[in-house]
Amino acid sequence: MWTTDQVLGGMPVETFLRDYWQKKPLLIRQAFPGFLAPVTPEELAGLACEEGIHSRMVLEEGGSKPWELRYGPFSEEDFARLPERGWSILVSDVEKAVPELMAIIEPFRFIPDWRIDDLMMSYAPPGGSVGAHVDQYDVFLLQAWGRRRWMIESTPRDDENAYIDGLDLRILREFNPDQSWDLEPGDMLYLPPGIPHHGVALSECMTWSIGFRAPAHADIVGAVAEALVDRIPPKLRYSDPDLAPQGNPGEISAAALTKLTRLVREALTPDDAALQRILGEWLTERNLNLGGLFPDNEPLNLDELREMLEDGAVLRRVPAARLAFITQPGKVLFFMDGECVELSESGRGMVEMLCREQHVDAEAAAKYGAAIWPLLHRLYARGCLMFTDDE
Question: d(Cα 314, Cα 94) in Å, to the nearest integer?
Fold first, then answer.
């Protein structure tokens, strides 16, 4: 099992967050010492052929136009028609399709879970790349197999006019790298948002990307506003029983504007507790594009679930599930794929365990008494937990 200390090259988490996170790049040689990829290029290609898996193919040459982007699922014939060079295959959310790969994500959980997006895997033959580009999120680039050369510009860019027109991808028109490294299996490069970078396969290679969520301000505010609007009783209507005559019928009067402004402000300025709940629900909302990666659990009542655990079965967290909690005075809000369960303050330890651990067995559950069983049953019924294959 890899550890946070290992993947940061022995650097304390506090040092990394202070000096590098969202500030400057960092190369870590042998972040995953002696790394042997548990997924082969052939297995990655197989995932790209499956329904419900988000996969893409980038053809620098050989497509209908330069840097053509194609979406999966693909077929064996699609791969057979590829040229020898100049293409890449990318598969997102691989850890959600192959839960064992959560072991790759685990060392990065010093960053809050709600900020972690996915493990994306890419394969390219020699010379393959996805072009020089800029990401608006943090990413750790782990070299999993073969060799890749990474080139970067150290100064962040945020220029919407910097990209070549007419392409499927946002490829930089100009790229002037000032740093370059050749990565071997186990090496890793951290890049903060906005850093222009370009990775070129020096041999057949796989690069694995641990990417992070960075919601746009507009999306955050829009989600909160939408939730607040949904809370307004539909029967409420504008009224003006104190309407007075006015000189011109075309004027929106100061009195009307005062009333309209007040009702908008009252609706869109919830107290902190209500706003926190809305944010928790939104940040943990189930990604419907990953619907095929949730289990079709056999219906069980609470007693049946408890009996199975006490007989030795083990529940595993479904990697696609989003769990989180918020502590408020006297209570804990526990979020499971967008649903909020309000618990007393005494439930915090139980919630912390469910958010932290990947597995739950009878011994772990017993520490929290009878209160944990309804919560486990609810998580199981929602498809946030499933029984392990070796139950």
Answer: 23
| Residue 105: Cβ-neighbour burial (10 angstroms; 0-12, 13-18, 19+) | middle
For residues 36 and 38, what is the distance between their CA atoms, to the nearest angstrom? 6
Mean pLDDT of 199-228: 97
How far is Cα 328 from Cα 187, in angstroms, rounded to an integer?
41
- Find out whether 318 and 294 touch, Cβ atoms under 8 Å: yes
Q: What is the mean pLDDT of residues 183-197?
A: 98
Contact (Cβ atoms closer than 8 angstroms) between residue 184 and residue 150: no
In angstroms, rounded to a whole number, what is the distance separating the alpha carbons of residues 247 and 240?
17
Q: 309 and 268 in contact (C-beta within 8 Å)?
A: no
CA 385 from centre of chain: 18
What is the DSSP secondary-structure string of 314-371? Answer: -EEE-TT--EEEEEETTEEEEEETTEEEEEEGGGHHHHHHHHH-SEE-HHHHHTTGGG
Confidence (pLDDT) at 62: 82
Task: Round to the nearest angstrom and report the end-to-end CA distance of the chain.
Answer: 21
Distance CA 58, CA 43 (A): 18
Q: Check the CA dihedral 376-380-384-385 and report its sign.
A: positive
Q: Read off the DSSP letter of residue 68.
A: E
Residues 316-343: pLDDT tens digits?
A: 999 999 999 999 999 999 999 999 999 9
The average pLDDT across 61-76 equals 93
Alpha carbon separation from 360 to 117, 300, 357 (Å, rounded) = 23, 17, 7
pLDDT at 300: 97
Query: In this predicted model, what pLDDT tens digit does every residue of 56-66 receive, in sequence order?
Result: 999 998 888 99
Put the strands of the sheet holding 68-71 in their side by side order.
Answer: 26-28, 188-191, 139-145, 205-212, 116-124, 87-91, 55-59, 68-71
User: Which single residue is written with the structure tokens 């967050």?
Assistant: 17
Query: Can you tell me the distance from the alpha carbon of 78 to that of 72, in angstroms, rounded to the nearest whole number?
Result: 10
Residues above pLDDT 90, as percent of the chain: 95
Tokens 């945020």 identify what position? 158
